[in-house]
Amino acid sequence: MAFLASTSRTSFSRGSNAALLLGVFAFFGCNDVNGSGAPEDKDGVTEVPTPNGNSSVGTGLVGGGGSSGTGGGVNGQDCLGDPDCDDDDLCTVEFCNPDTNKCVQFDAAEDDNICTMDSCDPRTGTIQNIATPIVDNPCTYDFCDPITGPSNLPYSTIFAEDFTSNAAGWVLGPQWFIGSAAASSGGKNGANDPVSDHSDEGDGVAGTAQGALVAPQAIVSPLTSPSINVSSVQPEEFVTLVFWRWLAGDAPADMGASITATVGANSYSIWDNAAGVVNDAPPLGTGWFEVRHDLTAAAADALATGNSLRLVFSFSKTATLPSVGGWNIDDLEVRRTLTPADNDICTRDECEPLNDAPVPDYDPIASIDDGDPDTVFACVPGIGPQQQPTAP
C-alpha cells in the first residue's frame, strides 16, 4: 500500500489535526478524481497515462502496481513498465513486454523440469524444487529425464551402435562392410542375406559380402569394434552384449563364425558356431533374432587393468559351393545389468525382485509359428531358433 510522499493538492495547516488527516489519506491511498475528471494513481496525486495516451483505467494500473500501488498485475494486462505488472506475490515473476505493452506473468518456482516437484512459500518466497521419487524395484535402473519423465529400465546402456554409418570407427577386415542391408540369392539351403535391416528403417547393418555370397576366406576376417568404456560398471553389476543377428551360415567345417572380446593381450571367447549350422534365413530360420552374451569377465579385466575392451566378430570360409550370405549384425548394445546373461541362446534373460534383491530368471524363448504345417519350431542351444521339418 502506498504512503503519501508528495504534497497533496488540498492545503492543510501545520497543526496536528491536519497532519493526522494527511496520514489517514496517505494510509488509505484513496483514488480521487482530478479537475479534468480523469482517474488518478492510487496515491491520489500523480496521473498515470495508459499506452493509448488516456488516463490509467486498466486493472493493474488503477488497482496498483509498482512503488505507488498494492499490485494486482494480471497476465495480458496493459502496462507501461514492469512496476505496473507487480502483483505483490513473492511466488510469481512478472514484467511488462515492451513490444506489446502487456504484462507477462509466470510461476517463480517452475523450473521446466518434469522430474521435480516445485513449490513456493507465499510468505517468504522460498522456492523448492524437490526430485520426484522414481524408485521402482531392485531389478530396474531408475532415472528421470527432465523432458520425458521417469523411466525404470532393466538395464543401462553404455555402448550402442545401429550402423547408420561407421562414424564410431569399426575396423573392417576383408569382405566386411557397414551400410545398407542387401539381399543375396543362391545361398546354400537358402542361407541368404536379408532385404532390410532389423528395424526396417534403412539405417544399415554390419555384415559380410554386401548383397552377395561370401567368397573363400582362408584367413579369419575380423570386424573389430571401437574401444568400449566400461568405467561406469559397479562391482555388483554385470555386463551384457545384446544385438540382432541374421547369420546365413554353413557347416562349421566349411565356415567358421565367432565372437570374442579382447582386453589388451587377453581374449575372451563369447560364442562360436561349433554346435552346428547357423542359418537364420527363412524358411529354415526365423529371420532377425536377438541374442545376448555375458561380457562381465572381460569388463572386469578392463576395469582392473585400464585396458580397452573391444568386440571382434569373425568369419572364415572354404571354397565349398554353393556359398552363403554370412554375417548380418544390427542394433548392437553393451549394457550394465543387475543379473547376468546365462549364455544360453535359447532363453530370455530376465530379472525378478525377491526380498528386495535382483534374482536372475531364465525363460525359454517363445515359439514362432511360421504357418507351415510341415515344420515345427525348435531352438537349438548354441545355434538358435529354427523351423525344422516335422517327422513323417
Q: Can you characterise this structure?
A:
It is a single chain. This protein folds into two domains: 16-107, no CATH class; 155-389, Jelly Rolls. The chain is 7% helix and 34% strand. It is built from three helices and 21 strands. It has helices spanning 16-28, 59-62, 296-305; strands at residues 92-97, 102-107, 116-120, 127-131, 141-145, 149-153, 155-161, 171-172, 176-179, 205-208, 217-224, 238-245, 255-263, 266-272, 289-294, 309-317, 328-337, 347-354, 357-364, 375-380, 384-389. 30% of the residues are buried.
Quick description:
This protein is mostly beta strands. 7% of the residues lie in helices and 34% in strands. The protein has helices at 16-28, 59-62, 296-305, and strands at 92-97, 102-107, 116-120, 127-131, 141-145, 149-153, 155-161, 171-172, 176-179, 205-208, 217-224, 238-245, 255-263, 266-272, 289-294, 309-317, 328-337, 347-354, 357-364, 375-380, 384-389.
